[in-house]
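Incident log, structure service

09:12 report received: a user says their structure output differs between two submissions of the same chain.
09:20 pulled the input from the user's history:
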Amino acid sequence: MDLPDWVEQLWGELRFKELVGQESGEGFQRLFQQVMKAVDGDDFAEVRPVGKHGDFKCDGWGMESWTCYAVYGPFTRKTPAQVRLKFARDLHGATRSWPNMRAWRLVHNDVAGLSALVVAALASLREEVDMNARQVRILPP
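09:34 re-ran on a clean worker, output below:
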């Protein structure tokens, strides 16, 4: 029996949400990289840590858009202060390591959405970047 398209689409969305919700840490990063590679092909470069240099605070790079993707899929919940500190370190580290970066995007696996405190922290970081006269846009998560 053939299922209607909307049922197949709904099933795909539910399955994807389940996969995203099950993965955290490096597993979520790998899932994100696989999805981006499937969607963007050669435009997306997976970035992996190398020795003492790490990944330069970049988990994936958009070749055409010069976008740095920062993947956040914690094993445990963090306080808003911990989350803001992590985002600040990732953003400022990326701006130093990727001088041609034009955009920075946070990728997360919180299917309920980010808390208001975390979104406020991202907005605050956007203001910091603007005040430093960087041409880096912080894109929505």
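09:41 both user submissions now match this output. Likely a transient worker issue. Closing.
09:42 reviewer note: The first strand starts at residue 44 and ends at 46. Helices lie at 5-22, 25-40, 80-97, 116-131.
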